[in-house]
Amino acid sequence: MIARSTDFDALDDRWRHGAVLKRDVFSTIERGRFRADGSEIDAVLRRVDAVPWWTRPLARHFLRRETRALQIAGPLGVAPPVLWAGPSGLVRGFIDGVAMHVAQPKGDAAYFRSAKAALRALHRAGICHNDLAKEQNWLRAPDGRAYVTDFQLATRFARRGRLFRLCAYEDLRHLLKHKRRYAAEALTPAERRVLARKSWPARLWLATGKRVYLWVTRGLLQFTDREGGGQRLAYDAPVITARLKSHDGVRDAAVVAFADRRMGVGLYAFVEGNGGLTEREASEFLTQSLGATKAPEQLQLVEALPRDRNGEVRIEVLSLIAMNQIDLIEPLLRDDAERTVTARIVADRRNLRDRFNM
Q1: What digits encode the pLDDT tens for the residues 234-283?
Q2: What is the distance between the alpha carbons of residues 237 and 267, in angstroms, rounded to a whole number?
Q3: Angle between the N-to-C axes of helices 315-322 and 336-347, in degrees from 0 to 180, rounded to the nearest 10
């Protein structure tokens, strides 16, 4: 039975705050620990009590939708379970995994079989997610299994009518778009036919509603998200990267986001030096060039950045280092050379607080 309360009084003695993962006009998402049955477990809290008054009705509506969907999806083993729910907040279980855009499941046909099975389980239970175009809503666990998160837009259907079938079709089509990006060779002929045919609501949305949505979210509300990194990753990170690369002592640089207790989202700069450059010099260069408020919270000078076979920087690996999720890196590494380069960076990493930032 889910404990309910008109406020957070009933949660005070059971919730231990960790890191703020995301904050926008519809909710604040925190990572922490929840006390259940005499012990603490990893959990995530979504709260809407501090949102602006003008978004509060819609924020509460999204919260109710997510709660109702997770009450069904959680027990299926493909989504986080509901641990506590109230009118202004929801505590759900934590899934130890990384988002698809970080995991980069290239050629991982088994992952997409697991994702399709998870989606099939949701649909059998009458749940359509309705937001699976976002890679951050798909997680990859250390054992390679797929999980789904963020059910704010999900719909529970009492019957499998025409609207359900349309929503379920779009859920599948969005999953297959991710599969086409990462494991196109594993697509079946039937899946290719689904990808080639959008439903009529999708075509209508692209022609009309999406333009209004983008104007409201990116223009009016200044949503950027960019895989959960927020405005700093979208606006500040490219400027920091370009500025670092302009320095004579820098061969290359990459800037990623991590959850920070004070800032909500912090930036971590990995700098590949030419030799002779120090971290202090690089930090002072950025502060003088961009100002203290724009400079990254963490900066690490490295001998070499991890790269794939095409020479591209492994941003997903650097993101896990920045977030201190070291235990999730090994499955992503392809050879001993990558392991050696990554191990040196991990050993000298700057964000030494645990992943809850407590």
Answers
A1: 889 999 999 999 999 999 999 998 876 555 678 999 999 987 899 999 99
A2: 7
A3: 30
Give one word for 231, left, alpha or beta, with left for phi > 0 and alpha for psi -120 to 50: alpha
Prediction pTM value? 0.73
Q: Report whether 70 contacts 79 (CB < 8 A).
A: yes
- CB distance 243 to 290 below 8 Å: yes
CATH number of 98-220: 1.10.510
Pairing relation of β-strands 28-36 and 15-23?
antiparallel
Distance CA 134, CA 174 (A): 9
- Please report, for residues 99, 202, 236, 241, 327, the alpha-carbon distance to residue 21 in angstroms, rounded to integers and kept in the order given: 13, 30, 18, 23, 19
- Domain chopping of the chain, boundaries: 9-93, 98-220, 230-347
Across 96-108, b (16+ Cβ under 10 Å) vs e yields: ebbbbbbbbbeeb
Does residue 315 sit in helix, strand or coil? helix
CATH number of 9-93: 3.30.200.20
